[in-house]
Amino acid sequence: MEPHATTRHERAPSQLIGGWEAGLMGLLVLLYLGGAIVNPAFFGSAEAFHAVLRDTSRVAIIAVGMTFVIVNKDLDLSVGSTYGLVAVVFARLFASNVLDLNVLTAIILCMTLGIVIGLANGVLVTVLKVPAFIATLTVLFIGRGFVLALTHGQAIYYPGKAKDYPLFFHLGETNVFGFNNQIAIFAVVAVIGALVLGKTRWGYETFATGGNEQAAVYAGIPTNWVRIRAYLISSLCATLAGLMSAAQDKGVTPLYGVSGELTVIAAVIIGGASILGGRGRVAGSCLGALLVVLLDKVLREGWPIKRTVKIGDEEITVNAVFSLPVGAVPVFLGLLLVIAVLIEPHLIRRQVATRFWAWLRGRPPPPAYEIGGVALEGVQTKGAMATDTAMSTTTFGRLLGRRDSLAIILAVLLWLTGVALRPDYWWNLSNSFAILLNYTELALIAIGLTYVIAAGDIDLSVGSVLALSGSTAAYFLKVLGADPFTAIAMGLLAGMAAGFVNAVVTVGFKLPAFIATLGMYYIARGLAAWFVAGQQLAGWPEGYNLLGRKVNDILLHFRISLPPGILRTVAEVVSVQTIWMFFVALMAGVVLAYMPFGHKLRATGGNIRAAAYAGINTDQVRFIALMLAALCAAMAGIINAAYFRSFNPVAGQFRELDAIASVIIGGGSIFGGYGTMIGALAGAAVITLVRALMQLNVQGFSMPQHWINVFIGLILIVAVLIDIWVRQANIFGHLLARLARVRSGKEIAHG
């Protein structure tokens, strides 16, 4: 009699620590040994090891909270600005030359601020249904605006008053055991976080929600609360890290938390968490944080070299340190983020290492994990709203029925507001066209971004691509002495290269567009600073600057003089960049509205699966859209350098926020499937006019720039909420339908 076949039940993998963490430990040892070989003066000392652990503590604490969010299949891009904002708020509350509160009150208020930020993120994402990357990106920009506004760009220090509160400020110092207290705090937070995620009901609910939210709902798990709770944990961890920094440095600078979200997300992904949700361990995230901080240290500290300096006829050998150029570290961290996210679907889920080990031993390979871990969204776009049909009998009704009508009406109202507040400024033709010049840059970016958003993707890198293209052109003009045509060509090529990488990673490697372009956001910004060594460049041929000049200036450059009259008046105020922008918008608008590609684009964004079934090459459509967005941003960068006759590495900052707001205000849907060129241009006009009005000097008052960025962030959130709850959920349509039923019921009753 043959024995019965038995089924082997393998033990479930540990939720505390596993093989991935062991591999990270080995990699960390090798990396540290490499640093000690390259720079023994720094990495060969116990002080250096202690400094790495101390600096890792704050990053790892934030990574503990981020692990809960990412396992939930969400994302929190606001942790860096939360970290910086909490430190700045503590400084303003505590410093004797500002509010001069006691340390306990300052800590309580900062913790309250952290809770408010976490709740805001959670409610926006769960209750109000704002996509996580949009909600937290906006909070990031708003928080960064608050940091700059509250510090006025200056550092705040309080070492004298800190001596009166040794208990709190000793948290940033070395204890009697010889190590920094922050390391002990990190250890406690890491142990608690690991046990909660791996061994409690909270952790079970988190894994269930991230693995399959719909199944979790059927199992009775309150998934909305689970996701809100994760954002609260993430924000509180960032708050704790900010307070630890305030205790250690006894002061803050406006740069606190810059790029912190990139470091933390990269650490969690490197630690083995899946951007697709349902996978992650706190121990891995902490080791990932240690790896990222160690890499940052190795790159920033450089390595010792010997240089020969010639003084007269005598050559002297001196010791020096070779360090990477300005911007190199953000480039590397951006690459690290993209690579880390690619590791999970292409190596971990396919079990490449396990399969290779089985092949070496001649054993059958284990089954690969399911690759398609993300459910495709259903149809997000809606047909004509009930209100559209109800109001379509009149010309005004047809206007209100358009998705871009809000932007058009707002642009007109804002213009009239400017006329009412400062008619002396607003009616001046040259001032009006000066506003138009500021509008041109944003409108160009919005043109390309309209295609991307209509296709159902997003591009967070457009502002950085603008900077990269302008930096490349400036480098060729100033450093290499190239002619204007070569500089323009190389600037456009650099921007298109960035777009190509975005498209390949998004479409070819199936990475979420917001992650791919977030990585490029830092890579392109770092390269822009790298090319110009972090300095402002100026002084290139006037032939290049003509791209940003008025039409009459160009005619005079070629010794053509127009006679006095209306033609000359217009030529003196209209710039060539404005003409070029409208030409690009016209071509893009015709393609989007009337050409087959425009229909394919909207079909892809409306329902990518249905579009594929209809024979549309959706990958090609998305690829072209991302390339077009990069091209438009590159053109804006070329014009930026010409208009200002110089290039600053901070060019294009916050432009991605402005551009996304422009497209959404103009009728585009954050879920894809909609978008018009008229709407995008009108939305860009709204943002430009809002900035112009807030900077307008009215009776001696004008709003500082940093507060304007906060206001623009709020506008973006409102625009997205209008898209979701007014356009997509058709609140007005349901309200009018209910009123119509009530009215008909009354008529029947009276009849």
From TrEMBL:
InterPro entries: ABC_transp_permease. It is a multi-pass membrane protein. It comes from Rhizobium gallicum bv. gallicum R602sp. CDD domains: TM_PBP1_transp_AraH_like (cd06579). PANTHER family: ABC TRANSPORTER PERMEASE PROTEIN YPHD-RELATED-RELATED, RIBOSE IMPORT PERMEASE PROTEIN RBSC. GO terms for molecular function: transmembrane transporter activity. It is found in: Cell membrane. GO terms for cellular component: plasma membrane. Keywords: Cell membrane, Membrane, Plasmid, Transmembrane, Transmembrane helix. It comes from the Bacteria. Pfam families: BPD_transp_2. This is ABC transporter permease protein. The keyword Nucleotide-binding does not apply. The chain crosses the membrane at residues 22-43, 55-71, 77-94, 101-120, 132-158, 179-197, 254-276, 320-343, 405-421, 433-454, 460-477, 484-505, 511-533, 577-597, 623-644, 664-694, 706-726.
